[in-house]
Specification:
The chain folds into 2 domains: 98 residues, RNA polymerase sigma factor, region 2, helix turn helix motif (Rna Polymerase Sigma Factor, Chain: A, Orthogonal Bundle), CATH 1.10.1740.10; 48 residues, Orthogonal Bundle (Arc Repressor Mutant, subunit A), CATH 1.10.10. The relative contact order is 0.09. The protein is mostly helical. GO terms for molecular function: DNA binding; sigma factor activity.
């Protein structure tokens, strides 16, 4: 029905309340959303990123201004990319906070963590569960040197400072942190 209608015309019709026009845009831009959401982030499922991409598409439909001379496809691509990137950054921040290691090797209590006041409670639980899974999986795989090196690195210490504090060589710390990175990547694959 809308195959021969331009994106800009579909946007106009969608803004006027034609649900079929928005559905056509949604279908037309599904491959773009899927491609932007292809790379996962800690704490996010593939469907989470696709949903964020769809929200970016909705935002593009609502805020598109044809008078600026930018094609809708380019504008939508930027909106979707920004929304997905923002979700990845937020998930990464939550992942880093939830997966921090204590000096004595104990997992921090979930009650001690401060939830994001603006986040959906269901999303908070999902993010916490995923972060907890990653934390547990990672700490089970790390050696004592890797745990201590990671903690000091995450607290802002340089490789030289970590080596000095732990009584190791720079190369030993570099190797330990490289192993941590490999182990973390393996958890996500």
């Amino acid at each position: 029905m809308f195959d021969s209608v331009s994106d800009e015309q579909l946007v106009q019709k969608a803004r006027q309340g034609e649900q079929e026009a928005f559905a056509a845009l949604f279908t037309r831009y599904a491959p773009l959303v899927e491609s932007k959401a292809a790379d996962l982030a800690p704490g996010l499922e593939p469907d989470d990123l696709k949903q964020e991409g769809r929200m970016g598409l909705l935002s593009a439909v609502l805020t598109f201004d044809p008078a600026r001379g930018v094609p809708f496809r380019a504008y939508a691509s930027v909106c979707v990319s920004h929304r997905v990137s923002s979700a990845r950054r937020t998930a990464f921040k939550h992942s880093m906070l939830h997966s921090s290691l204590s000096l004595n090797g104990e997992e921090s209590s979930a009650l001690e963590e401060v939830p994001d006041a603006g986040a959906d409670p269901e999303q908070q639980v999902i993010q916490w569960e995923e972060s907890s899974r990653i934390y547990t999986s990672l700490t089970e795989r790390l050696s004592p040197l890797e745990k201590k090196s990671l903690l000091l690195y995450l607290s802002g210490s340089t490789y030289e400072e970590i080596a000095e504090k732990l009584g190791c060589t720079f190369k030993a710390i570099d190797n330990a942190l490289q192993r941590v990175r490999r182990k973390l990547r393996n958890i996500h694959t």
